[in-house]
Design a protein that fits this description.
Layout: H1 2-10, E1 19-23, H2 31-40, E2 44-48, H3 54-58, H4 62-71, E3 75-80, H5 86-95, H6 101-115, E4 121-125, H7 131-136, E5 137-142, E6 145-150, E7 162-166, H8 173-186, E8 189-190
Parallel strand pairs: 2-3, 3-4
Antiparallel strand pairs: 1-7, 2-5, 4-8, 5-6, 6-7
């Protein structure tokens, strides 16, 4: 009777199988994790963070990586918040940081525009009615790997927790976060980068 409890306490089963690792802060995840996931993705990379700006500052040669991915046929998408939207203004008042949310979104849009038109690279703003859901949860997908950040109270993304998930089957946690991000994407508004 004791042995099965010890085993189940130590070994992942069920929904836990999809949790690769958790970090108390997004900034605690090694930048090599992000780079490895970008480099390892073959079909679809989806950055559904509200600003995504940190990717440009933390991943070496990020623009070159994106270019190589699209040239290899990988679909790369960015879903960002509207820098002029009401939810953005509200969240800026909550965060009270010098590098505002709208500045971070504009940094991403500027970096994407510098890439020029790339086949397979798409950018959208979350729809106004979805902005509150988007600003509260960032989902980053690399084929079957996801990095998920639920944003806590007044904290910026780098101070919020991060979950690394790997999809193991239908209907699991990875699918639920994937579907959430896809729903935001489908209702998103085209952004010219």
């Amino acid at each position: 009777m004791l042995w099965p409890k010890v085993v189940t306490d130590r070994i992942k089963t069920g929904g836990d199988l999809e949790i690769v690792r958790s970090y108390p802060f997004r900034s605690a995840a090694p930048s090599t994790l992000w780079g490895d996931l970008v480099d390892g993705a073959v079909k679809d990379i989806f950055f559904a963070g509200y600003t995504n700006y940190f990717l440009w500052t933390q991943l070496p040669a990020f623009a070159d990586r994106l270019r190589r991915k699209t040239e290899a046929g990988c679909r790369v998408r960015f879903l960002v918040g509207d820098p002029d939207g009401e939810v953005t203004r509200q969240r800026e008042a909550v965060e009270e940081v010098a590098l505002t949310l709208s500045s971070r979104v504009r940094t991403t849009l500027d970096a994407l525009s510098r890439l020029g038109p790339l086949v397979g690279l798409e950018t959208r703003f979350s729809a106004p009615e979805d902005a509150a859901s988007h600003v509260a949860l960032s989902v980053f997908r690399f084929d079957d790997n996801l990095l998920v950040t639920p944003h806590l109270a007044r904290l910026a993304g780098h101070d919020s927790p991060l979950l690394h998930l790997r999809r193991h089957g239908e209907g699991g946690m990875a699918d639920r976060f994937r579907d959430h991000a896809e729903e935001l994407w489908e209702r998103g508004v085209s952004a010219s980068a």
